[in-house]
Amino acid sequence: MRRYVDLWVRCESIEKCLEMIRCLKRLGFSSAVLELRGECLEKFDYLKKEAEEIELNLYRKLVLEPSSRKELLKLLRENRGRFEVISVICRNLETALVAARDSRVDTIIIPVNPRYRFDKGVAALLKNRVELPFRYFLKDKGGFLRTASEIVSVLGKRCGIIVSSAGSCSLELRNPRQLASLLQVLGFDEERALNSISIEATNLIEENLVKLSKNYVMRGVMRLG
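Below the sequence we write its predicted structure tokens.
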């Protein structure tokens, strides 16, 4: 039995967020990762409790969009340990190169039609997962598919790829198979495409929960007792 995860749900209004939580459960997700904005910023505990009542697990996500390497490193120092997932939208090659290999980053997000190319040299540095937001596809189908096709052809064999909704309302959410269908269009078989929404995303969260544990010392080392 697969456990499906929507790795990016954008919440600004409490009312809309509660509606999306119920919708995510109906769509078949067992977990969701929320980027909290506006009135939702201080309401995670409340939202988590509401979600638990319908057996949906919630986690927190920080989405960074730095303009430079220096800004990205500063933001990572300030925020690591406060969120279960940190994602970086890479608007330029400088931030992409840092985000691709920094262990504090969980996913990198490449915007539609970026002004730089991911070549084999960049791919060789990549240690983090790549996230493809379905919302980008809804806004610009042609541009998104061109960019996503390049990402998959260059990076697809070197890293995990996860599709998220990036929805900010129920109408922008999609069920797991609809999210996975993006990767099937790009050449993934059904099994690997579904793994992107389930195993890949679940493993990411579980790895980070271990790192956020009080008993975590460093990679491979846990404090006992």
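The mean pLDDT is 90.
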